[in-house]
């Protein structure tokens, strides 16, 4: 089971790099414009991705910053946000690399933010949510990029698997 999470952590880093490379060329006014997305702008959506990851990583590890609002703007500049994103992605990879099968069979307890309550959950399904949440909001950011620029990079998992060989993928010789 661990190999699945190793793949998702590596994919998360890869997809974020591609997304941020595309966002880096968006003019600031377009990057910050309210486009009707749940977190309004591309800037708000990218901040939310980092917010969510920090909240979950604090739950998983017991350390690190955990914002108290889902719409928090952690970094006002794109450069600072990108640097924080890269650092968080490395933290995620290191955390997943440090897990063993016993850890994955374990449970965690945490307090929710929006409707405060204490939750106890098996770790593996919580990790499933963690990586799915990232994909969900990256999809929103991808849509915003497409609307702004007319183009956005592919973030398909299969493309990552083919590019890296991670995910038990075998490319067979041509016939």
Break the fold down into its secondary structure elements and pairings.
Layout: H1 2-23, H2 28-32, H3 42-61, H4 78-98, H5 101-104, E1 107-111, E2 118-122, H6 123-149, H7 157-164
Antiparallel strand pairs: 1-2
Structure description:
The chain has helices at residues 2-23, 28-32, 42-61, 78-98, 101-104, 123-149, 157-164, and strands spanning 107-111, 118-122. It is mainly alpha-helical and 175 residues long. Strand 1 and strand 2 form a beta hairpin. Helix 1 (2-23) packs parallel to helix 6. The longest helix is centred in the C-terminal third of the chain and has 27 residues, at 123-149. The relative contact order is 0.19. The mean pLDDT is 95.
How is this structure best summarized?
The chain has 175 residues and is mainly α. It is built from seven helices and two strands; from the N terminus they run H-H-H-H-H-E-E-H-H.
Share of helix, binned: 55-70%
Task: Name the beta content range.
Answer: 5-15%
Shape call: flat
* C-alpha-based Rg, rounded: 17 Å
For the structure shown, list the relevant keywords.
two-stranded antiparallel ribbon, single chain, 7 helices, 61% helix
